[in-house]
Each structure stands twice: as C-alpha cells, then as structure tokens.
TrEMBL record:
This is Aminotransferase class V-fold PLP-dependent enzyme. The keyword RNA-binding does not apply. The keyword Transferase applies. It comes from Thermosphaera chiliense. The modification N6-(pyridoxal phosphate)lysine is found at K224.
Amino acid sequence: MENLDEIVSQLKEWYSRTPKHFEGAILGSMTTWPHPIGVYAYQLFIHVNGNDPVVFPIVQELEKELLATVGSLYGSRYGLFTSGGTESNILALFVAKRVSRGKSDVVVAPSTVHASIDKACLLMGSRLVKIPVNPLSPVDPDILEKYVRDYNPFAVVVTAGTTESGVVDRVKEASEVALKHDVYLHVDAAFGGLLIPFLHKHGIIDSDLSFYPGVSSISVDLHKNGRAPIPSSLLFFRDETYVGKACFEMNYLPSGMNCGLLGTRPGASLVASWAVVKAIGLEGYEKQALLQQDTALYLFKELDSREFVEVFKPVLPIVVWKSKLYDYVEMVKKLFEEGIFLYKSPSLQAARAVIMPHVTKAHVDALLKALDKIHARSGFD
Ligand code: 0PR
C-alpha cells in the first residue's frame, strides 16, 4: 500500500499545476470558483446519497427550499435538483415525450440549441429538427410557429442564453406559440437563468424569463452563475404532476422511487447549493449579474476600439469576437499559449469569453494584453 503522505504530496503538486478561476486564465468556460460555504457544506455532507430521502430526509427538505427560493424568480416551485444542464435537458424532453399524445416523434429547436438537446434526442430515438437561425438573433416566433405547424412536434426547445453567443430567445412569444398549438415548451436557461430576471428588471435586456402560460419547463444551472460546486442544476416544471413523470419505480429502494437520471447521486452538491443560495441570496445574484454585465461591456468596448478585431455586442455576459489576422481556431490556440483559456464559437467562427462571477476587469486587461501581443508586428499595431 502506498504511503498516504506520498499521495498527499502528489495531490498537492497536481493542485499547484491546476488552473484556478481566481487566477484569471479561465475566461472561456461557464464554470466558476464555487462559493466557500458551498465547499464547506460539500465536505460536511460528502457521505449523503441524494437518491435516498428516507435515510437522508435533509435531501428532500433542502431540495424543496431551494426550488422555492430560486423558482420564485420564474413563478414555479415544482421540479428537481439535477447534476447539470445536460441531465435537466434530457429529463425535460423525456417528460415532454411521456406527457404528449398524438404528436410526432420530433423536437423542434433553433439551430443555436445546446448539444445536450441533440444528445437527448439521440438517446430517445427522436428526431431533432433545427430551425436555421442567425446565431446573433433570437428565433423569429412566426418561423417557430411555421415549424410547429409543419412538424407537429412533441416538444419545442428555446434557449435563454445561448452557448455560443448568449442570445436570449423570446420566451413570451414562444409560449404563445406553444399554447396555441398545445405543445410542450422547454426553456434551456442553464446559463441565463440567474442573469435574465435581474438584467430585465434593470431594463438592460428586453426579454424576461418566466413561466408564461405556454411554458412547461425551465432549466437553470447552479454550477454556472449560481456559484454552487459542480454538479448542481435545477429543472422546474409548471405542473407538479410533471415532476412524477421524471421519476421511476424502484421497489428495492426505501422510497420505492428514483427521480432523475442518476441513481446514487451526490447529496453533498444539493446541500452545498442550498448553502450557497442562502449565503448569496437573490439580491446577491442581482448585484453579481449587473457586475458581470458591466465587465462584459468593458471588454466589448475595449475590443471594439481595436482595429484587428470584429466584436459582437453582448446580450448577456458572453463576448464573442473574430480576429482580422487569425482564423478563430488559431486565435484561441495562440491565446492558450499565452496562458488564456477561451472557448470557440464555431457558429460565428469566433472566440468566446464568458464573464463569469470570478472574472474581474484585471483579468480582462490581461486578456487584452495577450491579444495585443499576438497581433503586434502584424501591421495592426
Ligand atoms: N445548456 C446550455 C445553454 C449550455 O451552455 C450548457 C453547457 C448546457 C445546457 C449543459 O450544461 P452542463 O454542462 O451543466 O451539462 N455549457 C457549457 C459551456 O458552454 C458546456 C461545457 C461542456 C463546458 C463541457 C465545458 C465542458 O467541458 O461552457
């Protein structure tokens, strides 16, 4: 057996080489440094199986509280805690298929939809029909309606904060289409769920996010802008009976039931999410959203002032730009070599920076410095 001291020193060595969000290099992913109270709660409840509410009733109690607090933003307290946007999206479509009668085995969504919707459809053997859209614009409700009329889908998915450009589909208009055609509407707000209600309140964005009458479910990730440890997400339903449709009979379990896709699951992340949401509070998320948006606009303005860049105006704190010197894959690679980690936005052939809660203006300045450096001596300096 290996000496534990050796393992610890090996772990410490790996840890020192692992990038940490607060150091400023992680600018492309939608992850962030978790709130310390979440880390504390996670460690304390590390032994808890979230799939066993009989032995660990705290799981159910805190899930209820968490749903009520966050759900007050959208007008529903029914739903379940999941492991992330992917599980939430798969479950939402699974429930949609279970509750829809007389519809085709088709899901309709704008082409900006997240890849987990493709995954869900592949898993269920359903066909995903994508509406070609400009990645910088929300889907046109009239075109959405045309697709719904033509395909008679069992579900429609729109996104409140798209992965590649942060665009917000118009949930209210999509809800009217869903209501008129009696079709299940799922809103993927994995990224935008904890930004949109606040930015809308302050008049920064037009669209709001809510359970308008035609909306059946909304997913909101807590391990993104919620600052909870990974894996943490919420899936809300408009109707309590839909929650049951996301559950499966499992007679040998004390509760006789298993809800969600995972079996044994980290109860620690649910308790940690509760602690983080309690500590930050909705007012804290509101302040944070305004700060994120402010930093994103700062980056946008700085990029816009550079001749070697074409930048798109951010809707949510996701800033996307192209270089006039490099292909976007090459630009992301060059910046990686400078110690800055960005993601790609293939639909726009551009680089993507996400201004998550840990990102400061100093981090943005370091990114700008690296960008200036790789464009120096190019005729653009
Ligand atoms: N819906 C939207 C709109 C998303 O942007 C994402 C993920 C999901 C659903 C899926 O969420 P989970 O990853 O929690 O299941 N967006 C992340 C991003 O763009 C995706 C990601 C995936 C990041 C894998 C890193 C990675 O290694 O940053």
